[in-house]
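Before anything else, study the sequence and fold tokens given here and see whether the fold suits the sequence. Record follows:
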Amino acid sequence: MFSLFLRVVGAIQLLLGLCYLFMPANFLQQMGHSAAAPDLYYPLAMLAARFIAYGIGFMLISRNAREHALWVLLMVLIQLIDLAAGVFYTISGIVPLQLSAFPMFNALWIGVCCAVWYRRNAA
């Protein structure tokens, strides 16, 4: 079951990476964000590289997660940072809740699932 979870999370990461790499303006607009200055597309492409690499990594480790438990633990850290950033920018009024709620929910469920698995299987 956890193998399926890793593949789903990997697919999410790949999709995010491809959207940020190949259609950042359209992707941000579809999510409801303000238009980004074109010079921000470069750091978004760098972010996309990390999404894509982690997505591929999760697809590969899904075959034997215990051997690659560090990847799972690092995803807990990633999701914790994502959630903290979402809470910070929402509370400060920079990002409205209607834009941050779904990504924060994803950070929560992905982070919790990875943390629970790691605690039971690798710690």
The chain has five helices and no strands.
